[in-house]
Design brief:
Helix 1 packs antiparallel against helix 2 and helix 9 packs antiparallel against helix 10. A hairpin with a 2-residue loop joins strand 1 and strand 2. Helices cover 74% and strands 1% of the residues. The chain has 10 helices and 2 strands, in the order H-H-H-E-E-H-H-H-H-H-H-H.
Length: 301
Amino acid sequence: MNFIVLSLPYGFGALICRELVIRWKKRWPSLLLLGVAYGIYEEAIVVYSVFDPDWVELGALARYGYFAGINWTWGELTVHFHALISIGASVVLTELLYPEQRHQHWLSNKALVGCFVGILLWIPVMGLIMILDMERPLPPLGWYGLSWLAVFVLGWAAYRFPSQPLSYVRRTPPRPVFFFVLGLVNMFAFFFTVFLTADFGMPPLIVTVLLLLVLDGVTLWLALRWSGNGHSWDDRHRLALFAGFLGFFVYFCFDKDFERWEGASIIGLTTIIALWRLGRSVAHRVQFQREDRQSLQDNAG
């Protein structure tokens, strides 16, 4: 039951975000905006963890990150996670598995409506669970309403965002390992910044909030610069970037079992093997495409 309650909405969210991007004929910026909207929807509207100073996973963040009714750094952390992992990694890795369907619709109109209904039903289901837990306070109505507004504004922005927002830049991207390191450093730095600043109680909260925004800004700038504004890289680089993002969680699968065996390292090892096999498949496909293009050019010449 817990698996269904927690897992299905993630699938609904990823399917909805991808389908809207395809139907609107948009690209990665719109997917990123919809991922942020999903993160706000889950953490502020469904479980409202960003408003709860006693949320079970906060620890020192309850003292350090909570201001004016919001857990600010926790909110940044969870939205960052959902945008890049729950939505971004789910869509990107699935499209790498099925490249021939990358630009195709996966959902009929009825299926898309069904996904929306499913994800909206998450609110009353989780609300019932929260009601049974009488110690949990209700979210502040003002912030709750603004959260809904933020979701709609982000959805509208994703719809209105240009399909080609940045000009083509001819550039030879660095090897995929650089993108892997970029993703890995980003996720490690984000999580460690959030929890270490809370443990030490410094610097001031506003500094940490801005530092996290700068961290993601620099990561995005480097990814765009290396990839020629997203035009000069290929599937190997995309896979490497998201494997880097996932690497943080793979590491903690093993770290968790060092403290107490719960079998998490099996999940981590399975993820490594799956990413390695996908990486081999992607590398072979890219090589074949290169040889095919070279052959066409030679015949044309």
